Amino acid sequence: xxxxxxxxxxxxxxxxxxxxxxxxSERQHKPATQLVKQAVEFWLEEQEKLALHEEIARYAAETAxxxxxxDEQLETAGVEHLxxxxxxx
Length: 89
What we know:
Radius of gyration: 24 Å
Oligomer: single chain
Structural class: mainly alpha
Largest sheet: none
Strand content: under 5%
């Protein structure tokens, strides 16, 4: 079984941030390095979501008004679905 390679990364922190991290580490009874790793992973995931959103928005802006902008059959099906849902309520 292969284990993932890890790398150490030195991040200088201002005193206030370091103190807050240590306090949170003690409060959660978790190592500060674990909290930082989780925070970095969360931030990276959010950046990936943002990049995807921006790419979709760019594509939508570029194709607006073109033949790629609208699938008439899909729009009709969506409107019918919405209208049927309102009738059932």
